[in-house]
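Board notes (copied after class):
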Amino acid sequence: MSARAETSGSSVSPLPAVLVLAGGPDEERAVSLESAAGVAAALREAGAVVHEVTIDRPTLDELAAMPGEVVFPVLHGVFGEGGPLQDLLVEQGRPFVGSGPTAARLAMDKLATKLVSASLGIPTLPACVLSAQDAVLSMELPVVVKPVHEGSSVGLHLCEDAAAWARAHGAASRDIKARPGRVYMVEPMVRGRELTVGVLECGGDVSVLPIVEIAAAGGVYDYAAKYDRDDTRYVVEPELPGGIAARCRDAAVTLVRAMGIRHLGRVDFLLDGEGAAWLLEVNTMPGFTGHSLLPMAARAAGMEMPGLCARLVRAAMQNAERASARCMDE
């Protein structure tokens, strides 16, 4: 199912007051601040009263004292996107945009996402955990090294040869020592085309936004290519080999449903030279910056930022209303 633009008119109920959360303690804090500003501006344009609050690690009491009927947590990273904040939001009781704690944790874990993908028959590259105590590489070069629980290409290392692997292993090992609990993974490096599929969910219905291809000028879609540089090209609904677009869309919907992702998500694939599309990862709170892919895809579907953000707030309200009705029935 394709996403359609948010309609306007008397049949659409007014938006509630929205608490837009920004910041967080994670490495993607700067991206969160920019994303949240974009969401807040869009919701105001859509007619909502918006309360913007920049947070670090709020307590339950601090969160409860913040104004707003619905929470839109525009945070990226382990705390804000990967479960801990979602735990607080569930306990606090207000409707909120985005996935619940279980789906958030599952999607933040790239290895867990790969296991789900493989169990569903969706192709994904093999991967293993990097051992800081053992520098022997267990797969053939070239490889990619990256943290298991980060987004925005934070900590990404591309290893074409043994020297690059040694540097990446050393950097990852130092990071693991400095941050207990940090986990890195290793997977084969495959040259190809990066594709992303944005999805919107409401009440179990998943709609798919146009596919976007990312062509980074330097060949690597890293943090700088995503947020700092202006030479990355984005192609909406690119020409793809026969059947690839349908397979990526179907895989995205299957994954979103299986993982319990709600309201919004972005599923990333790598199309290799042989025509195989490999699942890379799933993002449960994609960016809302000027470079971000979900708003870009929504715009191509006829849904500008105000309509997109309003749709997500209404999805959160409907989710809470259905949950309340189930409790009453029980």
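Comment from the instructor: The longest strand covers residues 192-202. The mean pLDDT is 90.
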